[in-house]
Amino acid sequence: MLAIRHNSNSLYMEALAIRERILGRKFPDLVTPVIYQGAVCADHGRFDRCENLWHHALFLKQSNGIGVCKDLQRFSQLFAQMHTMRFSLRLPSLITVLSSCVVEMARTTKRVNQIDPMADNEDIIDEVDANILSTLYIISLITKVLKARKPVEPEDLNQVYKLVREVVSLDMRLRDGQTLLHLAVNGCLPIDEFRTRDLCGFPCPDTVKLLLHCGACPNDVDFDRNNALHILVGTIKDPPSRQTILTMEYILSRLIAAGAHVDAVNDNGSTPRESIYTRQVQSIIRSYEVRELRLACLAARRIGRSRLEFKGIVPKHLEPFIEMHCSNMLSRSE
Predict the structure, then answer these.
(1) Residue 65, by phi and psi: left (phi above 0), alpha (psi -120 to 50) or beta?
(2) Which ranges in the chain belong to alpha helices (H)?
(3) CA dist 78 to 30, 33, 40, 47, 184, Å?
(4) Which InterPro entries does its entry note (predicted)?
């Protein structure tokens, strides 16, 4: 103690360590001073120390089964601040936060499964939405670091893939049914003051590429039966800039290569091309429709237009495929 008696920061850190040893890691208010000291370090530009303290706070909370929704948002703000001040983002730190995102999303999944339909569940739904957005933001940041950092350690890359696969497998959705892939292509996704657009803007090609690589399904639909293609083209502002068109074409090609159906219909019975009014975008999608035209898709749409009964007649595994192309047409006809 004599060696640090004139260093207030070191004294405070020592006090935190002593406090943890005395109170134990399960003490309810143990993390509050840790988070506060991390914020003080960040204010003085000691981001490395802030990260270490907040990682420890995350560990303590999750070890005790406490939600970390606010902590994940806090890390998002920290990383944005670091970027603004031109501090390098460290991939291992981002991976640690993403790992915490996986744990937190698994925890909230259990809470969602235990929801009482008759109770007021707004707080749980808000928490789920916030966790999904924080996770998306962290994944997007990771893609930026991976792109800028060459070469990437194979161990780090494998860990990123593993964690993103776990996130995708949880299939968490916003209250409107949007998946992470929907959000990654959503040009209207709000980004708050901490999540600067130059750091993380959507639609994000690299995030889409990573999600697809890790198993995200391009044909998943939200509660309005919009797939990622519907969201991508439906959130393009008119008139689109050249960069917007280039981004859209890249993502479009990635989604279609991963198996997305350009002729899938939403609740309104509209394909992605029929959902928009921008001629330039329509013509681009039309070119893909011509190139990707498949006999099976034409047959599925014909079943819908002819109001033919197919459930229990065609093989079970074909029913979702037919519904993707015509279920809404059938329901309206009936």
Answers:
(1) left
(2) 8-23, 31-43, 47-63, 69-84, 91-113, 122-148, 154-170, 180-184, 205-213, 228-234, 242-257, 279-291, 295-305, 319-333
(3) 21, 17, 12, 8, 21
(4) Ankyrin_rpt, Ankyrin_rpt-contain_sf
DSSP helix/strand/coil, 187: coil
DSSP 204-225: -HHHHHHHHHTT--TT---TT-
Q: What number of residues does the chain have?
A: 334
**Nearest Cα residue to 106 out of 172, 44, 22, 157:** 172
Close Cβ partners of 161 (under 8 Å, ≥ 6 residues apart) = 213, 214
Written as one string, the DSSP assignment of 29-81 is: TSHHHHHHHHHHHHHTT-HHHHHHHHHHHHHHHHHTT---HHHHHHHHHHHHH
Instruction: Identify whether 154 is preceded by a cis peptide bond (ω within 30 of 0).
Output: no
Each residue's pLDDT tens digit, 178-217: 999 999 999 887 666 554 555 678 899 999 999 999 999 9
d(CA 77, CA 83) in angstroms, rounded, equals 10
Domain layout of the chain by residue ranges: 295-333
Q: What is the pTM of this model?
A: 0.89
